[in-house]
Every structure is written in structure tokens, then in C-alpha cells.
Amino acid sequence: MREEHTQYPQKVNVWAGIVGNYIVGPFFIDGNLNGVKYLELLQNDVVPTLANLHPDPANPQVPANTIWFQQDGAPPHYQINVRQYLNQSFPNRWIGRRGSMEWPAQSPDL
């Protein structure tokens, strides 16, 4: 085995969530997280998984209206296309910057 050194430290981006007794994910993101990658993660992994766990009877493609989504104020979370998607998937049920409910900065939650 040969030890390798890189110019930049190795890093891994992982997204995971908790819904009731379920762990959602983990989902791994290649490279640095940006708005495009975060939106793809929401569209392709997070929201379909939540809809599968707790489907809305009127529209099984979206999570039930009892599920709230929470995120912090990281720049990728704040992009307009991400917020529009969250408004569509979680109408009046998401917490974050410019969301249905503002995320309290530095709150001691998860």
C-alpha cells in the first residue's frame, strides 16, 4: 500500500435526514455542494424517498402534508430554484431562509 498526498484535503459531502423512526439517506454528493447539485439531490433522492415513506394520498409524487422540511441558511439552500422547488414540494411546510418559516440562525436543534 502506498501513501498518497494531495494538495487539498479530502472531503465528503453527505446528506441525511430523520423522519419519525426512519433515517433518510445517507446520500453522497460529489465535490463541493452548490445550488444545482442540491436541487438535483432534492429532486432525485430526498423528495422521492420522503414521498415513498409518507405519500400524499392526493398526489403520491410528493410527501404527505404532515411532513415539514427543515434546512439551514447555507448558500446552496438559498438559491431561487431550490426555494421554488421546496415551495412546490412542501407548500407552507418548510423551514429555512425565505421559507414558509424562517430558520432561526444558530438554533440548537439537530
Automatic annotation (TrEMBL):
InterPro entries membership:
RNaseH_sf
What protein name does the entry list? Tc1-like transposase DDE domain-containing protein
Q: Which residues cross the membrane?
A: none
Q: What taxonomic lineage is listed for the species of origin?
A: Eukaryota, Metazoa, Ecdysozoa, Arthropoda, Hexapoda
Q: Which domain of life is it from?
A: Eukaryota
GO molecular function ontology, one term from the record: nucleic acid binding
Organism of origin is Callosobruchus maculatus
